[in-house]
Design goal:
This protein is mostly helical. The protein is built from 6 helices and no strands.
Length: 185
């Protein structure tokens, strides 16, 4: 991605940490939780690698088409699985955004926009709006609910890998990362 090195490395760290946590979530006893965590781990690590600043490493030309193939496959899988749950539609949009960013990088690995366009391309703008809304909604979902009691027994508390608020925070951080990456292309 294009942009200053320090924020780029922070984005790499955020996405890699999120991917690592999602790998740990794959140990959950809930099968749907494991599958979602696997999709999110792929996205987190893929975003981390894509966010490495260009000043630190210039990938070979074959990397971006390979990214498009990997995340194109992830998008097709998300489309197939979306038949059973709407959360997979978000995975579909995320994978499609990764394919789009890889295509932009393939077409123009050193410039910000493909084909020398001025302004923000329509697809980039649409993805920015989607992920901005996703981040805002995800952030609101993390706010504590008024009147909720925090006095649950330790025995009934879910394992740390199955905690829904941690999974939501993971998704929020990936949404923020996606926004940052889209702003740099």
């Amino acid at each position: 991605m294009h942009g200053p090195a320090s924020p780029g490395w922070l984005l790499v760290a955020l996405c890699a940490a999120t991917g690592a946590y999602c790998l740990l979530r794959m140990r959950s006893s809930d099968e749907t939780q494991r599958r979602a965590a696997g999709d999110e781990a792929l996205m987190g690590f893929g975003m981390a690698v894509m966010a490495v600043p260009g000043s630190a490493f210039t990938p070979p030309a074959w990397v971006w088409p390979a990214y498009a193939v990997v995340f194109g496959g992830a998008a097709l899988r998300a489309l197939w699985v979306a038949r059973s749950g709407t959360h997979h539609l978000h995975h579909l949009v995320g994978a499609a955004a990764m394919v789009y960013m890889a295509a932009v990088m393939t077409a123009s690995p050193t410039a910000g926009h493909a084909h020398g366009e001025s302004g923000v391309p329509l697809l980039t703008g649409g993805l920015l709006l989607y992920f901005a809304a996703y981040v805002l909604i995800s952030g609101v979902r993390l706010l504590p609910v008024a009147g909720a009691t925090g006095s649950t027994a330790a025995a009934s508390a879910p394992a740390w890998g199955d905690r829904p608020e941690l999974a939501r925070a993971c998704r929020l951080s990936m949404g923020i990362g996606m926004l940052a990456m889209l702003l740099t292309i």
